Amino acid sequence: MSASTVHRASTGHRAFTGHRASTALRACAGLRARAAALIRRVPRAAWLCALVALANCLAWSLITPPFQVPDENAHYAYVAQVAERGTVPRQILPEGLLSPAEDGTLGALDFYEIVGDPHNPAPFSTLQQQTIEQVGAEGLSRRGDGDALTATNNPPLYYMLEAIPYKLAGGTVLDRLAAMRMLSALMGAVTVLLVYLFLMELLPGRRRTWSVGALAVAFQPMFGFLSGGVNSDDLIYLTAAGTLWAVARMFRRGLTPASGARIGAFLGLGLVTKFTLIGFIPAIALAVALGLWRAWPRHRARALRGGAWALGLVAAPVLVYLAVNRFVWKRDAIAGGVGSVPAGNPSGAHFSFAAELSHIWQLFLPPLWMRHQFNYVPLERTWFKGFIGRFGWLDYTFPEWFYGLAFAVTLLVGALVLVTLVHNRRALAGRRGELAVYVLALVGLCVEIGVESYREAILTGTQFEQARYLLPLLGLYAAIVALATRAGGARWGPVIGAALVMLALGHDLFAQAITIARYYS
Amino acid sequence: MSRLTVRAVRAVLACGLLAILVAFAVLLAHSAPRRSGSDVTPNVDPAAVTLSTGEQACQNEELLPADTAALRMIISSGESPPSKLSVRASGPHGALLASGALAAGWRDGVVRIPITHVSTSTARATVCLRDEGPSQVMIAGDSSDQDHAIQVGGKSVEDVQLRIEYMRPGSESWLALAPTIVHRFSLGKAGFLRDWEWVAVLVLMALAIALAVGTILREET
């Protein structure tokens, strides 16, 4: 090769590289500009609502003693496994050991005595503090057997994100946990931001109601309590709110590659956080089908690309997770299975599809002709009271009169929503497809919880269901509050909205007060 | 939005905040006996230990907290008239730290036994409860605790722990207890949060309330 050829080739290569670099830079700048424009389009009120949620969730993270959020010890162990060994946990039978550092800290905190017993407080004495500090200073190993208890079978996304504050914080188990809780609180804030955006799309032109709905979520005590702890549910709430926002936006603006990608991205990320969001899949399939139907035939190509983006972005992370799970981490493709019941199980109970259907029904609705599977009313005890507030490891509640008061307020809000829906029945009829999607999201999630609940009942005879599993529907809760506000019209709507926000605030502060009384008095 | 509506919204916000303040003021003024500590034993067996007249149950490895003036236990005498009960708390080397007694005539259930005031915390203390007669008493606790043993009538009884709560003197309002709660808030927490955590909670909630009210008011305009 002559020198001139080499020179030409080299110059050509530099020119090509330079061209590629400048194209990439332009693309980056374009993306940045688009992102900045997108952020600018978010109303200031949405940011303020998110800030309210951030402050509230951070306060909850400081009020709740370490590891007193459900399964926080298990979720911490998962993050430690990711951060310390760079891999996911695996099930060890009988149950594996946590890391000496975590186990020692749990022991020093009297964790095993405090959880489940509302009369046992958090550490009161400086002598206990000295023991805790001693454990922290011993430099115990942060590596366990690789088992993360109840969190072991979860997908890894949340834990990979939490590994960042875990690593950045360094120090003792308590230092790391506090930093991880801050990231969860940030997820809570983003969830409220997405709820606001969902309301913007759902109820266009009703600006005041968006803030009221988003603030009702920001002050929802169970949401604040959970978002102040380390639990993969926190990212589920975010991705579910994002999915609902993306669906509502698609209904307003049509199915495009961008809207399809948005739906797929949020749902896909949700699925690799926790498989609970499988319950959303029928609703999302219906939403995309309706999007295609509306676009047909005029915007067929665009809508098809949108549908493909949605499908691709849902499937891609899940398929990658399943493959990595199977071939790299050597776990079952779907660790722990979803809704499957082994033929032989320790409880001796047998799977029956009819009993499963009956179980799912009774979990949410009053039993009809069926054999009773619960000796209480789950609708009241698990879902209503649980949503109003059942904190810690389900070990302390509000006084009974408070649930009566909350029920009265719920009836009032329900009546206001009914007034709004009747008043807007024509608009509602025009949006029945969209409404069906939200109803299907609710039903799908309930069925998914019911399947898991039945599986747990058969396998272990224990109760699985908790109100926090319905919090992926926080967007719909916000919509109910916003619709109640609309019942008052232009004149009284803002007054109702202000009253509902004050009620939500009082509810949240009362929940924090009983939490302080539970652990510190 | 009409001026009337704006005024009504402001009135609702003001009334709401006032109602919350009043509710918290009432709550803070509520007075009741408060704990100085607990041995965090679950109350799973109402008769974890039964004492006959003249017998005593001694539990060691107790953390006797500072500012204790009574013990709270769950005790029953069944159908019989309740016995006189006496308590002795001693340090790891046997020195008497506090003592007290409860005259006969108490009612079954949660029983408060006054003791001499304890001003400093002591780890590895031994607490003894003696049944002074005339009848037997049953004390609640955990009878499946494999890590603990207690002495009953001078003999070691395995797998048993009594539930003992340590009480501060008299009754206190939440407001009076606030400095103690602030101290407890700093225990068992991350090192970088410990000393300012309670301030952070107050600031964060004040910020959340201010932002929420500000957002609602902003929407009016």
Averaging pLDDT over every residue of chain B, what do you get? Answer: 93
Report the biggest beta sheet of chain A as strand number plus sense, adding barrel if it closes.
2 strands, antiparallel
**What share of residues are in beta strands of chain B?**
35-45%
Span between termini of chain B = 8 Å
Q: What is the approximate shape of chain A?
A: globular
Oligomer: heterodimer
What percent of the residues of chain A sit in helical stretches (DSSP H or I)?
A: over 70%
Order of helices and strands of chain A: HHHHHHHHHHHHHHHHEEHHHHH
- The number of helical segments of chain B is 3
Percent helix of chain B, as a range, is 25-40%
Instruction: Give the largest interface pair and sizes.
Output: A-B, 67 and 60 residues
What gap, in angstroms, lies between the N and C termini of chain A?
85 Å
- Number of helices, where a helix is a run of at least 4 consecutive DSSP H or I residues of chain A: 21
Number of strands of chain A: 2
Strand content bin of chain A? under 5%
- SSE order of chain B in H/E notation? HEEEEEEEEEEEEEHH
Widest sheet, order of strands of chain A:
1-2
| Poorly predicted tracts of residues of chain A | 1-6
What are the key terms here?
heterodimer; A: 521 residues; mainly alpha; two-stranded antiparallel ribbon; 21 helices; 70% helix; 1% strand; disordered N terminus; B: 221 residues; alpha+beta; Jelly Rolls; 7-stranded antiparallel β-sheet; 6-stranded antiparallel β-sheet
Describe the protein's topology:
The complex is a heterodimer of chains A (521) and B (221).
Chain A: H1 3-41, H2 44-63, H3 72-85, H4 100-108, H5 111-114, H6 126-137, H7 157-169, H8 173-202, H9 207-218, H10 221-227, H11 233-253, H12 257-271, H13 281-295, H14 300-327, H15 353-364, H16 378-389, E1 390-391, E2 396-397, H17 400-423, H18 425-430, H19 432-460, H20 474-486, H21 489-520
Chain B: H1 3-29, E1 31-38, E2 45-51, E3 56-64, E4 68-76, E5 85-90, E6 96-102, E7 109-118, E8 122-131, E9 137-142, E10 149-152, E11 155-158, E12 161-162, E13 165-173, H2 174-185, H3 197-220
Antiparallel strand pairs in B: 1-13, 2-9, 3-8, 3-10, 4-7, 4-9, 4-13, 5-6, 5-8, 9-12, 10-11
